[in-house]
Task: inverse folding
């Protein structure tokens, strides 16, 4: 499944912020009620995918009467109610988190459905509305938090995706410890993953190399460690064992070199090593290694980035049953991941923050990625692909609508083969995302 993904660095910052929020010192607890919060997060998403060369707008497994080719166009509204309690006072703090996720169809149709935004009814239409509720109990000792139940996870080897109207939700146990300053240790075991469209438990299925459905998530065991060596240098290592699918190992190094006032140079390196299980690969491939290195030069309101990514081994990089956000690589962008077998890809990117020019909250981004040398199984042909992205975002800074944001994203993807990690060749993708967070408590 191809999904919209944000930068690996942004995801890392999000993960760290979330985990540290759970891991505040137990000795400073004010109580279950006193430290509780209740937020409402609203997201409206319009998504249009224009497939070139007549590619079907409905996957072959969902073909129904009225299927058309050429495009998918849908609009939906997601409403998230998020309650997070504080911890009870004492040596062991106890708390509880709960959420309600409601997906409302605003516009869709049987002939233009299947953007992974809504569940599909028996007659092939988008479901009008779905609601999912869940919760998790949590315990804290000192700066260590253990959480069990339904939760959103942001680990490089197990990451729930949030690229549509609603996020994926994982079920399991997650431990995060920040006992040593600068060092974060994590471990978890997850036994189910709910998709962004279906409310029934463990609704994400894997997919084998033959394209047939494989069993969903049975279990995923993960461990990780992140350490800030200095204010400018940090690193992390993570590993996972997903039953019947693969074992993954991940590493990251990030270094920022200050140059002058409002100038800096950042280097960010990410690498995955994946060993596939025989039941998943049918003995046709065994492993993959993919890495990316990005160098970003910041000059006031401007940031210029160059990234290189390379995939090698017996197959491309695979993910999904362990979360559709589990691809923390620089060239994983709006449409493609650029992780095909033996693929090499380059990216150039430019970011502009208009706050320096008197328009706080307004920002722009554009990037271009090109990939080549993709091995096509059973042929002598080498696959190629390229993608261009452009994005504009504005966040209202004050007043009654403070924090209301508008984001317009457009992507153009072209390829010479359907075997390069995507099930299409040429595609234009346009999205308008409106988000409005409300802090009720």
Result:
């Amino acid at each position: 499944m191809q999904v919209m993904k944000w930068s690996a660095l942004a995801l890392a910052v999000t993960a760290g912020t979330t985990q540290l929020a759970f891991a505040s010192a137990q000795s400073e607890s004010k109580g279950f009620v006193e430290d509780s919060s209740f937020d409402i997060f609203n997201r409206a998403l319009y998504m249009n995918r224009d497939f070139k060369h007549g590619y079907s707008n409905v996957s072959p497994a969902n073909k129904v009467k009225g299927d058309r080719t050429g495009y998918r166009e849908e609009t939906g509204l997601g409403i998230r109610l998020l309650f997070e309690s504080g911890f009870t006072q004492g040596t062991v703090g106890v708390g509880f988190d709960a959420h309600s996720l409601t997906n409302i169809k605003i516009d869709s149709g049987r002939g233009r459905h299947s953007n992974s935004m809504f569940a599909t009814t028996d007659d092939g239409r988008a479901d009008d509305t779905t609601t999912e509720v869940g919760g998790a109990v949590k315990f804290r000792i000192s700066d260590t938090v253990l959480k069990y139940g339904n939760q959103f996870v942001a680990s490089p080897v197990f990451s729930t995706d949030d690229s549509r109207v609603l996020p994926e939700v994982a079920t399991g146990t997650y431990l995060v410890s920040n006992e040593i300053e600068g060092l974060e240790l994590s471990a978890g075991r997850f036994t189910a993953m709910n998709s962004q469209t279906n409310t029934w438990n463990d609704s994400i299925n894997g997919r084998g190399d033959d394209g047939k459905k494989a069993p969903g998530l049975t279990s995923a065991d993960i461990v990780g460690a992140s350490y800030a060596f200095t204010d400018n240098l940090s690193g992390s290592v993570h590993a996972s064992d997903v039953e019947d699918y693969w074992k993954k190992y991940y590493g990251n190094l990030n270094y920022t070199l200050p140059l002058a006032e409002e100038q800096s140079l950042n280097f960010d390196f990410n690498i995955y090593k994946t060993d596939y299980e025989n039941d998943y690969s049918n003995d046709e491939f065994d492993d993959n290694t993919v890495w990316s290195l990005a160098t970003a030069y910041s000059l006031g309101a401007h940031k210029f980035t160059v990234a290189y990514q390379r995939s090698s081994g017996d197959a491309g990089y695979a993910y999904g049953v362990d979360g559709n956000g589990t691809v923390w690589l620089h060239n994983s962008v709006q449409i493609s991941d650029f992780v095909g077998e033996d693929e090499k890809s380059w990216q150039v990117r430019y970011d502009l923050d208009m706050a320096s020019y008197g328009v706080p909250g307004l920002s722009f981004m554009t990037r271009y990625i090109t990939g080549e040398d993709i091995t096509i199984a059973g042929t002598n042909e080498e696959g190629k692909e390229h993608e261009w992205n452009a994005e504009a975002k504005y966040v209202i800074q004050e007043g009654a609508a403070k924090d209301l944001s508008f984001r317009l994203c457009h992507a153009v993807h072209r390829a010479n083969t359907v075997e390069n990690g995507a099930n299409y060749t040429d595609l234009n993708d346009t999205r308008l995302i409106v988000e409005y967070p409300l802090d009720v408590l």
Notes: The chain is about 5% helix and 55% strand. The longest strand covers residues 92-107.
